[in-house]
Amino acid sequence: MKKLICMIFVAMLAAPAALAQDRYVADQLFTYMHSGPSNQFRIIGSIDAGDKVKLLSTNRDTGYSQILDARGRKGWIESKFVMKQESMAVRLPRLEKELTQVKSQLANARQNADSEKAGLASSLDARNKQIAELEQNYSDISNQLTSSQSEIRELRARLDTQKEDLLLKYFMYGGGVAGIGLLLGLILPHIIPRRKKSPNGWA
Length: 203
Fold this sequence. Notes:
The chain is an alpha+beta fold. 60% of the residues lie in helices and 18% in strands. The strands form two sheets. It has a five-stranded antiparallel beta sheet with strand order 6-5-4-1-7, with no helix packed on it. The protein is rod-shaped. The termini are far apart. Residues 4-11 have low confidence and may be disordered. Pfam families: SH3_3. Its main location: membrane. Residues 92-165 form a coiled coil. It is a single-pass membrane protein.
């Protein structure tokens, strides 16, 4: 019978702890823990702001909540000091750490961006230099082509002139030969005496 009573007593003590919910003490310097659900009960200790506690029960009439702290102490504190959200005393260092990490990542990102920007600027300068060289080469080749075309036109004009001169020379030479032949044909019969024919037809 005693064992049964002990088991029931232990179960009654363990049941609230099993149903307990995580809570945090609000951002006050510290608050007193009372042995009962009001400030009329004796003070059994204090609990600091931001401490994680287990919420065991709440007395809405008095506005006090029963908690279990990390050291295993049970007590009552005002319900307005029990919060679901972590205290700023806990969150602030974490947020500051996250902020530091984000700043570091941002600085690295900016450094990488600056490095990439410098690389792109250098590449762009190199490409612009190559384009300028190609444009200069194109200009030189274009000038050479223009000069070559002018020289070809001059040579063709000279060749045409030489052809005309040669044809004129041939025409004059042929005319001269024909004139001389005609002249000789007219003069020679008068210069060379004709032989008289014999009566018999023999010279």
